[in-house]
Amino acid sequence: MAVIGDSTAPPAPARSGRRAPAATPPRTGRRPRRGPTLLPVLLVTPAVVLLLLFTVAPGVYAVVLSFLQLKVGGGLLGGGAPTEVFAGFANYVSTLVDPEFWAGLGRMLIVAVIGVPLTIVLATTFALCLDVKRARLVGVTRLAIFLPYAVPGVVASLLWGFMYLPATSPIGGKVIDYFGSTGIFFSVANVAVWGVVGFNMVILYTAVRSLPKDLFEAAELDGATELQIALRIKLPLIAPAITMVALFSVIGALQLFNEPTTLKPLANAISSTWVPLMRVYTDAFVNNSIYEGAATSFILIVMTVGATVLVNVIGRRIARRETR
Question: Which run of H or of E encompasses 290?
Fold first, then answer.
């Protein structure tokens, strides 16, 4: 250590007039930012093309057909080739004044009133039960609940149809009239619920598992039971997921077609126009009235959009009340 005034201190290095090389900045390990890439666009392009070809284009074509009609030419005898003419809203008026359309819509709503709440309650109950600490064989149970969703709707309807028949029923078909004028609503709703509960359960179970565990530990320290935690903490926090499940269920109810169509040969209570989509199929491919069928389809699309908006509004209000 040099002392001021000490002659033995080492001399200061002489200045050579050259600047010392600047110190290189340390490497941070970050790669330089690149410009925009087309990879995301290329990955999304096949899905967009399929959506346009098989969803948007048929929808636009159906809307165009709904404003057309066939007009037979050739004067009084009608010997000329039929031509398409603009009909305005004639097809829509024909559908809206048809009492069978409203009767089918009412039957569809009855099935929805039975099936939609039952789907939400069962899916929520299964999701909350699987998240309990004392639950065992969660993976096997979750797979067993989800497995019916993997069965196609037509196959499931056939299986349940033979279970409903008195001659082959193992669930009391000789005592209970599953295909009666009243029982048919519960029979169709049961098939629909059985096929979609597993999918909705997975959505709700994923939402429950994503909740912070600190809330549950704090509630346990305060003496809360598993039932109280499920009803007062988990259930309000997964309200947005329940809203989404309710939305899926409502849309599925408005698209009811596979179950009644498959059960129709087995049940006299189901007609060819039992629900609106069956009426669309009958008009378009049985009665050769594709223009009126297109109009009915567009009316159902409008109803589906309206139901979607309504469910979203109700779900948001419920979520806001739960978070207050």
Answer: helix 290-323
